[in-house]
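Why run this: before we spend reagent on co-expression, it is cheaper to look at a predicted model of the complex and decide which construct boundaries make sense. The entries below are exactly what would go into the expression plan.
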Amino acid sequence: METTKFAIPEIIFGRGSIKYAGQCALRNGAKKVFLVSDSGIEKAGWVQRLMDVLETAGINWIYYPSVTANPRDFEVEQGAEFYLKNGCDVIMAIGGGSSMDTAKGIAIIASNGGKIRDYEGANRIQRPLPPMVFITTTAGSGSDISQFCIITDVKRAVKMSIISRTLVPNISIVDPLILSTKTETLIIQSAIDALAHAIEAYLSRIASPFTEPQSLKAIDLIMRNLQHAVETRSLDSLEKLSIASIAASMAFSNAGLGAEHALAHSLGGHFDMSHGVVHPILLTEVMRFNLESCPAKMADIGRVVLNKRLGSDEETAMEGIEKLDEFFASFDVSLKLHEVVKKNDKKHLEPICKMAVNDACNLTNPRPASWQELLKICQKVW
Amino acid sequence: METTKFAIPEIIFGRGSIKYAGQCALRNGAKKVFLVSDSGIEKAGWVQRLMDVLETAGINWIYYPSVTANPRDFEVEQGAEFYLKNGCDVIMAIGGGSSMDTAKGIAIIASNGGKIRDYEGANRIQRPLPPMVFITTTAGSGSDISQFCIITDVKRAVKMSIISRTLVPNISIVDPLILSTKTETLIIQSAIDALAHAIEAYLSRIASPFTEPQSLKAIDLIMRNLQHAVETRSLDSLEKLSIASIAASMAFSNAGLGAEHALAHSLGGHFDMSHGVVHPILLTEVMRFNLESCPAKMADIGRVVLNKRLGSDEETAMEGIEKLDEFFASFDVSLKLHEVVKKNDKKHLEPICKMAVNDACNLTNPRPASWQELLKICQKVW
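The model came back. Tokens follow.
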């Protein structure tokens, strides 16, 4: 086997585990925590809860609340100024992918200077970042586990992938109690995001024996628990989605993703859409495109999705993909691009696909995909 | 679920990956590396190879060669003096569990002072350790992944378990090429050590969804590959044992172990024996003792060992244990205590078992075990 790397944060998982946030900050030398979140989490009361935990631990903090969905370049650059001006030493985020990616972007600029676009791509960060302690409020983005940071370049209207081992936070606190305050839509979108991570990571050209079992575990948990979690909101099933998201994140952070995420970044950057919206539209079509390159691995996914073995690899793989289509259709999500993009905007698909081929995620897709092939996929799912 | 923690080092895995040792030391701020190994690894040429790698990276090093099997308290205390006198800043070990545990012991004393016995048990280390980069030369001890350090207390003649998250090294380099220079005995003993880790961690009272899949993966890989690895020495099968050892270590480091390891520490400390010798004698008898407390989980192990499902959990569990007995018998290893302990020494079993009940590993055994029950187990396998 060629050299493979596997890096994840220290994980603290469990109901009520937010209470350990103060100790975690102290263990990383915190005197003044830079706390990143958004108004939704504030309203749900979690920001106040976290502030109370920090105060009990005797830690100063400064709050940076201005996180928007799909964080933009100028926002993290402003945040870094604010971080430095206030002499902070540990960055803590409580929120979904947007809050955590904002925190990562701020950490990069505060310690390495320059503009965030200087770090686009893999391994461009030279100097160490301040310690990061993250508390995820969704079970999907994986930013709390991964070495990825996705920031929108406003001028080019594209989501940049910034990938570096130093973007793995020091500690990730996952408290399933927090999930119980999320909307149905967010639970579905997050779980489908995690499912897309797990599938693309499993098929990645650099998947390894350390990432593959994590992918399959995540697929299994999401297929068996998402419907039930949406219907009942039972803490047990939300907890299982949480575990699935962590497993999927361990996989994609170390194995990379594929063409579907490359497209999702470009489409999402252009039309300001979140991943969770794009995956049910694109994922199975990209799997059909990739099938010829990896029928055995696609069959492994099929076996987990179907929970049974069929005759041939091809048969299992194809039936698995169809089952995924049915699975997506069973939720209240869009299944075609025209449902989420205006008719007039179809003309933008070509430049979007030309952008997507250069996304770092496209490098690990099992079948090389040109922009013309990506465009064909987009047209099929229009 | 109650709060559970999962912490592992950054792992760099692959044939020839020893070449990254210099970069890894530099990333941890190395100016002068304290290099720990033993004469066996030296003779095999790996110490020189590592010194060459460090020199190419422009890093100074000082070599500490005096590692013996089952490292003793006074040795790590001497090592710490040597470390401090030489102004080192990163500890690197290349070797098996003994070299790595020596390095950990030195790291503890060099940064926290006192005597090594002050740190026996769980979470007794207060101050941060120097960065540690480990290169394992066996596929079993797991010290390269785990938060465990086992040092013999010479006066009490017992192996002390020292357990702390800070004992997880910063980086673990696993190069399967190094395994190809090991003896048959060492390959078998190491794999059986990893198998015992995987099984005890799976049954542990604090096993979690993060550790359980790693345990089952390790058991599967060892059952399917050890015989072939011994017969052919093929790099592919040695690599699989390596992956198994990493998976088992991720599991036991975070889930803990059980009564079998508690006994193995006390027996090993008293009679100066390595783990690999004790496991084939004790493991299945401890599993029989534990069976009533965890039939479903014991059946999961049975299904992996047998590679099939039987009627009931109890049937699958029992047949799995018998299959493990057969598996051990198929190698050239001792299966009874009297083969490795002198007849005269039988009288020491009682004090040994009284020591073992207090070993930290006994706390996570699925069925509470008194010293009398441990003694019964030892008598059964005499």
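Residues 183-380 of chain B form a domain with the Dehydroquinate synthase-like, alpha domain fold (CATH 1.20.1090.10). The interface with chain A takes residues 1-8, 10-17, 20, 165, 176, 208-210, 213-214, 217, 239, 243, 246 of chain B (CB under 8 Å). Bring this page to Monday's planning discussion.
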